[in-house]
Specification:
The protein has 337 residues and is α/β, with parallel strands linked by helices. Helix content is 37%, strand content 13%. The strands form two sheets. The chain has an eight-stranded parallel beta barrel with strand order 3-4-5-6-7-8-9-10, surrounded by five helices. A two-stranded antiparallel ribbon has the order 1-2. A hairpin with a 6-residue loop joins strand 1 and strand 2. Helix 2 packs parallel to helix 3, helix 4 packs across helix 5 and helix 5 runs parallel beside helix 6.
């Protein structure tokens, strides 16, 4: 079963393995299978579920809401996000303006079938809306009881500091950051993590298995597995391509003895690895089959000895991306519409 951790310096506990439905619900897998995956997560003790209005253009929220019907709401932590274009893509259907935030939270609550979300997250930083406007809108949503906590996703350390300062002035506090983080992608370690730890903010990390590369299923020089994310034309292949190089894939295969020593699969090792970071409250996992959920949950509570962590670093060597500037480089310079 899953262990639980506090989110930031709040009193909210979340499951350290959190179920996310990016790239799956409403697009890659049928709704019936998606529901089975959600129920597998519940059976494994996962109580925290992460989605976003942009996933499958709002369909993912609807699928998650349907899958959670009948569950005791107070026993769940439901997270969603706002920023990216939704609906027909009009000029105000994106960003972090007061208008878009207020309309988006109402739409998300309707689709999720709930009166509130536990965590509402700014999916990216909006360079075209004053930060004061954004944070005031979040403050009002908290006061209205539509969101209990506020977080951000893929913000730089500087942006997190500015947002945190404003939130405190407005009577609430940022409690979380949702960045990409894995053995291969460590760009948050030098700046985002220290700033977050100082401010009482936790990480809820996405792609701990590097879009599936750290499962070891992609072999150097071998054909891509049929039906894998690397063959997905709906978006999966685009996200995974940065890791699809033989030097990376060869080093991932060399992690197998480390995983074997711990009695873990490579995927479980990858999830357990991100949870060794004390600033990480949860690792987000997705699934296209229920059994994948049960396997990933086995990473909860695993302690990786220091000598094995050092061996992992030696094996991966120069293929690890550590440049903190990558967070800003990956952010949109302007709104999509």
């Amino acid at each position: 079963m899953v262990n639980y951790r506090y989110l930031g310096n709040s009193g909210l506990k979340i499951s350290e393995i959190t179920y996310g439905n990016w790239l799956t619900h409403g697009s890659q897998v049928e709704n019936e299978t998606a529901t089975k995956c959600v129920h597998a997560a519940l059976d494994a003790g996962i109580t925290s579920f992460d989605t976003a209005d942009v996933y499958a253009n709002t369909k993912a929220e609807q699928v998650l809401g349907d899958a959670l019907k009948g569950q005791r709401r107070a026993s769940l932590e439901i997270f969603t996000k706002v920023y990216w274009p939704t609906g027909p893509g009009g000029p105000n259907d994106t960003g972090l303006s007061r208008k878009h935030i207020m309309e988006s939270i109402n739409g998300s609550l309707t689709r999720l079938g709930t009166d509130y979300v536990d965590l509402y997250q700014a999916h990216r930083y909006d360079t075209e809306t004053p930060l004061e406007e954004t944070m005031q809108a979040f403050a009002d949503i908290v006061r209205q009881g539509k969101a209990l906590y506020i977080g951000v996703s893929e913000w730089t350390a500087e942006q997190i500091r500015a947002g945190h300062a404003l939130s405190k002035e407005l009577g609430f506090q940022l409690v979380s950051s949702q960045p990409q983080y894995s053995m291969l992608w460590r760009v948050i370690e030098d700046e985002v993590v220290p700033a977050s730890a100082e401010l009482g903010i936790s990480q809820i990390v996405w792609s701990p298995v590097a879009q599936g590369v750290l499962t070891g299923k992609y072999k150097p020089g071998a054909p891509l597995p049929e039906g894998s994310r690397a063959t997905d034309s709906k978006g999966g292949a685009n996200f995974i391509k940065r890791f699809m190089h033989d030097d990376v894939l060869e080093r991932v295969q060399q992690l197998t003895p480390v995983a074997d020593e711990l009695g873990l699969s490579l995927a479980q090792l990858a999830v357990a690895w991100v949870l060794q970071n004390k600033n990480v409250a949860a690792a987000l996992i997705g699934a296209s089959r229920p059994e994948q959920v049960a396997e990933n949950v086995k990473a909860s509570g695993v302690v990786i000895p220091a000598e094995l962590l050092a061996r992992i670093d030696t094996i991966l060597g120069g293929v690890v991306e550590r440049d903190p500037a990558k967070t800003a480089e990956g952010a949109p310079a302007s709104r999509a519409v």
